[in-house]
Amino acid sequence: MTELTYTLLDNRGFPPERLHPGDAGLDLRCIEDFTLEAGTCMAVSTGIAVAIPEGYCGLVMPRSGLAARHGITVVNSPGLIDSGYRGEVKVLLVNHGSEDVQFGAGDRVAQLVVSSVPQFDLVRVDRLDETVRGGGGFGSTGR
User: What is the pTM of this model?
Assistant: First the structure.
């Protein structure tokens, strides 16, 4: 099994954790009280750094409960943590709801999903292969 190592950068930090066996996401918690005002976004400190193994990436994902109850999500969802990054994990939250939302130190604000990333060589060609879809974009399938 591959290890995911982490360090607490702040004594207020909480280890990332799975609440249930088999969960894909590791809960990320904030380290201080804050209010996320309606219509605003902010970078939220977790007080941790992780060492994503080479060949993997970390994806900072929203929590469905925050989205359903308050309209809060991750601005750049998913946030990407590359394997070479060793700085603090911060969560970029946005409040799409109509009311301010209070958070307390230790509240779960996002999830970290670690996913494998296939490595490949980039090859420039003069022309790409043909597909049924071709260059059709948003809504091109008619569904």
Answer: 0.88
